[in-house]
Amino acid sequence: MFILVTPELAVRLEEAQDFKRLKLVVAADRSDLAKLRRALAGIAALAEDGHAWVSEDWLRGRAKDAAWQKGLSTMIAVASKYGWVDETAKTIRAHVEWADGSSAKS
Q1: Given its phi and psi angles, is residue 9 left (phi above 0), alpha (psi -120 to 50 degrees) or beta?
Q2: Of the candidates 4, 41, 2, 42, which has an alpha carbon nearest to the alpha carbon of residue 26?
Q3: Is 58 helix (H, G, I), strand (E, B) or coil?
């Protein structure tokens, strides 16, 4: 699954049934990080290391289906084994991919 930020700064979850990966795809202009950070408020926080920390609550709010929720829980449990979950903040680390194909630090 991935979170897409469109050029207009709309945010939506794509490929929600793919529990094997989690990334943030940013198609918006990276020259105005302040606007991007505002668009992601409550959804994900960009980190200096080229990753983002995605809100578990936001993800869970995307679907009410019990099977999907179970799939998400399993994905989070696997991510936790690698240290990619912040239990206190209830966030999951995701790779950030920019529209230009780069994954450089933000």
Answers
A1: left
A2: 4
A3: helix
- What is the pTM for the complete model shown? 0.90
Long-range contacts: 9-13, Cβ < 8 Å, 24+? Answer: 9/35, 9/36, 9/39, 10/39, 11/39, 11/40, 11/43, 13/59, 13/62
Using 50 as the pLDDT threshold, list the residues of the chain that sit under it.
106
Decide if 106 contacts 94 (C-beta within 8 A): no
d(CA 32, CA 69): 34
Which residues in 20-103 belong to E strands, given as ranges? 23-26, 44-46, 51-55, 85-86, 91-98
b/e burial code for range 22-34 (CB count within 10 A of at least 16 → b)? bbbbbebeeeeee
Cα dist from 12 to 3, 23, 48, 103, whole Å: 6, 12, 23, 20
CA distance linking residue 54 with residue 93, whole number of Å = 6
